[in-house]
Amino acid sequence: MDQLIKIINQTEFSKQDIVTMLCAEGEDKKLLFAKAKEIKEKEIGKKVHYRGLIEFSNICSKDCLYCGIRKGNYEVERFNLSDAEIIAAAKFAHENKYGSFVMQSGEISSPAFTDRIENLLKKIKKITNGELGITISLGEQSQETYQKWFDAGAHRYLLRIESSNKELYYKIHPKDEMHNFEKRLNCLYALQKIGYQTGTGVMIGLPFQTMEDLANDILFMKTFDVDMVGMGPYIEHPNTPLNDYTAELMPLIKRFDLALKMIATLRIVMPDINIAAATALQAIDPIGREKAVKVGANIIMPNITPGKYRNNYKLYNNKPCVDEEPEECVSCLDVRIRLADASIGYDEWGDSKHFSKRREV
Ligand code: SAM
Ligand code: SF4
């Protein structure tokens, strides 16, 4: 216990310190979680900010070996919401005072897709009087495309590195030029250079992943100086190549616990960034996201995709709320956040404090 107390009160952390935090059990784990909560409340307060999430298309040109909507999964019925449906979702987020909107989809890189997103961003900004913050998570694109979307009104971008260990990255992606580790890194640099609040993240509990890999992921986030992180447990999907390694995985509940420890540890290492409570946590534990809020997370992304499409955006088993409509999520989440000893920053963008400080420097 003495060793953990010493570590959590430091301001600089070695890889071994991080491994020790990630391995904390019993009283040590309680201390880790309590310290992360204390740091969050001191640095950014008790507020949780919402990002209304629309998963507007499951059409994807890539074949990530873990993902249920990969191009090679022919069992999925593909969908693409109309512009009117996406705009209606943005209005819903605005009217329900969510403060921010996230647009996410499979990865498509074509001039038509680029133009469509640019036009949508401009329209959404206009109809919400510039009041709705916009995050996008649309995969790897050219610097020019990222710039166009930034100029059209998106100000945050989420692109998970998935794993900062290049060898592990290539074990969970096909080895071809469509799935290139350096390209993903360069995309993150481009986003940061353009001026986006830049977010990344990893999956936790992947086959072949070690504690050292996860510690290195946290050090990667720190060195890269990210503004926001969205990370959650890896959950297998039956129609994916990585599903063959299910026998090698730690039990779901352990992956969940490790994800909470990753969130708490990251909060201690990077006190002022935005950390999202990933939806995958809720797939394992119905109150998984609220538990994440208690140990350092400060962002929740309620799903506001129309109910009829949700079943076809299944990245993994047991994706939650697939049979709900956006309205049902509003009331149920509010109560749950309050139970997690937090309040909701309605109508606020909830930008990353780290980003503002980085800009001042
Ligand atoms: N296509 C974009 C991309 O890959 O960046 C955005 C959408 S993608 C579905 C969003 C995230 O889902 C990925 O970054 C990945 O970490 C996560 N994901 C995919 N399959 C998953 C799985 N089986 N378990 C947990 N998370 C998964
Ligand atoms: Fe496509 Fe993203 Fe899934 Fe990879 S993780 S297959 S890019 S949707």
> According to CATH, what is the topology?
TIM Barrel
Spans where pLDDT lies below 50 across 5 or more residues: none
Tell me the name of the CATH homologous superfamily.
Answer: Aldolase class I
Q: Could you give a short account of the major beta sheet?
A: 8 strands, parallel, barrel
Helix content: 40-55%
Distinct ligands: S-adenosylmethionine, iron/sulfur cluster
Tally of domains: 1
Portion in beta strands: 5-15%
- CATH domain class name: Alpha Beta
Continuous helix count = 15
Straight-line distance between termini: 37 Å
Q: What is the oligomeric state here?
A: single chain
Structural class: alpha/beta
The Cα radius of gyration reads 19 Å
CATH architecture name = Alpha-Beta Barrel
H-E string: HHHEHEHEHEHHEEHEHEHHEHHEH
Outline type: globular
Q: How are strands sequenced across the largest beta sheet?
A: 1-2-3-4-5-7-8-9
Would you write up a description of this structure?
There is one protein chain. The protein is globular and about 55 Å long. It is built from 15 helices and ten strands. An eight-stranded parallel beta barrel has the order 1-2-3-4-5-7-8-9, surrounded by five helices. It is of the alpha/beta class and 361 residues long. The mean pLDDT is 95. The chain has one domain (2-9, 17-23, 31-360): TIM Barrel (Alpha-Beta Barrel). Helix 2 packs across helix 9 (211-224). The structure holds S-adenosylmethionine and iron/sulfur cluster. S-adenosylmethionine binds at residues 66-67, 104, 106-107, 137, 139, 159-160, 162, 203, 234-235, 237, 280, 315-316.
